[in-house]
Design brief:
- The chain is an alpha+beta fold.
- The protein has helices at residues 22-29, 74-82, 95-101, 107-111, and strands at 34-35, 37-43, 46-52, 55-60, 63-70, 84-89, 116-119, 122-125, 130-142, 145-157, 163-166, 169-172.
- The protein has a seven-stranded antiparallel β-sheet with strand order 3-2-6-9-10-5-4. Strands 1-11-12 form a three-stranded antiparallel β-sheet, with no helix packed on it. A two-stranded antiparallel ribbon has the order 7-8.
- A hairpin with a 2-residue loop joins strand 4 (55-60) and strand 5 (63-70).
- The longest helix has 9 residues, at 74-82.
- The radius of gyration is 17 Å and the shape is globular.
Length: 174
């Protein structure tokens, strides 16, 4: 038989059209503190990566992560091609890495001078305080982004405080 998750069916209706100004949403969401990560993958042309703060754990059983990547992102194309990706949580001393990976410059330039190694075919930044290696599971439409979910294959961490993004800038907590 089927597993019933809810006693009553959940209604699904399309949300009403919005007239919300994207600037207002951006301003409001800027108040939301997020950890700064570099999401990356490796393809034959070399490693690809971008700074991302729309990244979070999704499930503990099974262990899943999600990252929201811009539809036009070269890193999204690399993740799709590779079938796996890494999430590198940056520490408070890594603002320079965040800024570099946040720029739309040639991929090779983003990686110049960056200490990294390959872990199961996925770039692992040496500076990361947390590294999560994922096998791509789902690609879901999310407006101007694609929501990438991944099954966690390995996770490692070291001491350090995360770099946080809020109100349009990087801050240290703790």
């Amino acid at each position: 038989g089927a597993n019933i998750l809810f006693a009553t069916p959940m209604a699904h209706t399309d949300p009403p059209p919005t007239t919300l100004d994207p600037t207002n949403m951006r301003t409001a969401m800027a108040l939301y503190h997020t950890a700064v990560t570099v999401v990356n993958a490796s393809v034959p042309a070399g490693p690809a990566g971008l700074a991302a703060n729309a990244v979070t754990s999704l499930s503990l059983d099974p262990p899943l992560m999600l990252a929201c990547l811009d539809r036009g992102s070269r890193t999204l194309r690399a993740v799709e091609a590779a079938g796996h990706f890494g999430i590198n949580v940056l520490g408070t001393d890594d603002e320079g890495l965040a800024r570099s990976f946040g720029r739309k410059i040639p991929m090779a330039e983003k990686w110049e001078g960056v200490a990294w190694s390959e872990h199961q075919g996925i770039p692992r930044l040496e500076a990361a305080i947390v590294f999560v290696a994922c096998r791509m599971r789902d690609l879901l439409s999310g407006g101007d982004h694609v929501i990438v979910t991944g099954e966690v294959e390995t996770i490692s961490q070291r001491e350090g405080e995360p770099l946080v993004f809020v109100d349009g800038g990087y801050v240290r907590i703790g």
